[in-house]
Specification:
85 residues, mainly alpha
Length: 85
């Protein structure tokens, strides 16, 4: 390793930009964060990704758009239909 490095041309922030996303700071209740962390751990995904998905669904509902068909929703509908039959 060098004894000195030149960071004069360095920039703060993510090394690789994420198109369509903006880094922000947000205050959330501890119980909300814990809920998403626990679900993320059990599903093997990131809790921030799950929060983003939940917020996008809320925005879609507020706009009156249809929710995308997910595996969980499909299972729910199938259970209801099988139970009714």
């Amino acid at each position: 390793m060098r004894k000195e490095y030149d960071f004069s041309g360095g920039k703060r922030g993510a090394v690789i930009p994420s198109p369509g996303k903006t880094r922000i700071t947000i205050m959330l209740d501890n119980e909300v964060i814990e809920h998403f962390r626990e679900r993320a751990d059990s599903l093997g995904t990131g809790y921030q990704t799950m929060i983003n998905t939940a917020l996008k669904a809320a925005v879609s509902r507020a706009k009156g758009e249809e929710e995308p068909l997910t595996v969980a929703k499909l299972r729910e509908v199938l259970r209801q239909e099988l139970h009714a039959a």
